[in-house]
Design a protein that fits this description.
The complex is a heterodimer. Chain A is an alpha/beta fold. Chain A has helices at 2-9, 47-60, 124-134, 149-160, 179-186, 246-250, 288-308; strands at residues 15-18, 34-36, 45-46, 64-67, 71-75, 80-85, 88-93, 97-99, 103-105, 121-123, 141-145, 164-170, 193-195, 197-203, 210-215, 228-231, 234-237, 241-243, 255-256, 261-262, 275-277. Helix content of chain A is 25%, strand content 27%. In chain B, the strands form 3 sheets. In chain B, strands 8-5-6-10-9 form a 5-stranded mixed β-sheet, with no helix packed on it. Chain B is elongated, with a radius of gyration of 18 Å. The termini of chain B are far apart. Classes of the chains: A alpha/beta, B alpha+beta.
């Protein structure tokens, strides 16, 4: 939305905004905690409030066509996007394209987390959606693997909902999240944070019933000793995000294999002229306000590209 | 008495060095903005937090409505406030900022909607 609005402000006349969900705002809709907007709006907002400020402006601009429930499935290097919509298939040729596709979560399967494969193991962001959007509690007693911001925020969220959050387990020496989140999400609720520990095994047949935890050394190797067990029925995995750039890849854009981000001449650029990636698809950000700032830049970059290329003759 | 705390007012998370007499703040140092000492004073004398949660809806376009307290409430009242909030079902369309519960638990803060929700 920030890119679309900035592109319009920079003189782009016709913008199509494709959104796969039923609502604009993306992940902000499920991020109901505060902490958004301190830089951009000089106010501490929740995710939905932050999103709504943009939705209002996007909806007012008749030159931004919003297409909800539109899932982009194909992209080619001559900038044709194919998308699936309820009962329809649409192909659009654009002169410039900005991908604001965000990230997906790293899952249990992507980190060494052995044991059985029972129900009750969720990526933290999925648990966030279940609780905040669907009204389901994923379990009663939880252990959180990884101390990224989403994990910390979910520790507090579940504690507020009456879930017993028994521990956050972090393999590194320091939390990966913001210090303020360690304070207000863990310390406020007396949730222990085990640094330099890892979950060595998940137990349970149909449902998680406990995890084994061991201490690790500087090289992340297990220290000798028996470790300890934590009984729980739920494990949330908060171990990072992976930029979602499969459409760019489909068009032949160069992707850094290590980070799954596009390779380009600078922030937002890809290897295809006129094609940009902004927000978490470009790099994983800590703050939504910075996503907005850089996405507005993407909108201006697209406008600049359009201004210097010839419009197609009709 | 010296103690350290992390300011939670913004993502910078300044580490504050506080001088207290046990119940009141005497001085604070280490902040990058004026919110730091104000936070430290409040945190020592009566810690406050903004409550954010979501409540059930019926007949609206989403199953849950995100809500927040209009201003911070005492930290010790968060769970009590959650118990009250869990009983709520919102059945009429709302706009962001609309009051869902006024003067929650008599704490002087309203519970307000964080987004617009129309009928299904």
């Amino acid at each position: 939305m920030a890119a679309a609005l900035a592109a319009r402000a920079a003189g782009v006349e016709d913008v199509l905004l494709l959104e796969r969900d039923q609502h604009l705002g993306g992940i902000l809709n499920q991020c109901i905690h505060t902490g958004f907007g301190l830089q951009h709006f000089k106010a501490e907002l929740t995710g939905p409030e932050y999103a709504e400020r943009f939705v209002g402006r996007v909806r007012q601009d008749k030159r931004i066509e919003v297409s909800l429930r539109s899932f982009a499935v194909r992209f080619t290097k001559d900038k044709v996007i194919s998308c699936l919509m309820p009962g329809a298939f649409r192909e659009v040729k654009a002169r410039s394209v900005i991908f604001a596709t965000g990230c997906r979560e790293r899952t249990r399967e992507m980190i060494p987390l052995p044991g059985s494969r029972p129900a009750g193991v969720y990526p933290a962001g999925l648990a966030q959606k279940m609780i905040n959007m669907e009204g389901w509690l994923p379990g009663r007693e939880a252990v959180i693997v990884g101390s990224g911001d989403i994990g910390l925020i979910m520790a507090r969220r579940m504690a507020l909902e009456g879930v017993k959050v028994k521990a956050v387990i972090e393999i590194q020496k320091t939390s990966r999240g913001l210090v303020r989140n360690v304070v207000q999400c863990l310390e406020d609720f007396g949730i222990p944070l085990y640094l330099q520990h890892r979950v060595a095994r998940i137990h349970g047949r149909d449902r998680v019933n406990k995890v084994d935890v061991v201490k690790v050394d500087e090289e992340l190797k297990d220290l000798p000793g028996p470790g300890f067990e934590i009984a729980c029925d739920t494990v949330l995995v908060s171990v990072g995000l992976i930029p979602e750039n499969e459409l760019l890849e489909m068009a032949g854009a160069e992707i850094d294999r290590k980070t799954n981000t596009p390779v380009g001449a600078g922030v937002n650029f890809t290897s295809i002229p006129g094609v940009f990636a902004c927000g978490n698809a470009c790099k994983v950000y800590d703050l939504a306000d910075w996503v907005t700032r850089d996405s507005e830049l993407a909108g201006r970059q697209a406008a600049q590209y359009l201004a210097k290329t010839e419009p197609p003759r009709l | 008495m010296k103690r350290f705390m992390t300011c939670i007012e913004c993502p910078q998370g300044c580490r504050l060095e506080i001088e207290t007499d046990g119940a009141r703040m005497i001085s604070a140092a280490g902040e990058k903005c004026e919110r730091g000492p104000a936070y430290a004073k409040q945190e020592i004398e009566a810690p406050m937090r903004t409550l954010t949660t979501s409540v059930l809806t019926r007949g609206l376009e989403l199953k849950m409505l995100a809500v927040r307290s209009s201003k911070p409430i005492p930290k010790g009242k968060l769970l009590e406030a959650m118990d009250a909030v869990k009983r709520i079902t919102v059945t009429v369309p709302v706009r962001a900022g609309d009051i869902v519960v006024s003067d929650l638990l008599g704490l002087g803060a309203d519970l307000v909607a964080c987004r617009t929700l129309t009928r299904l």
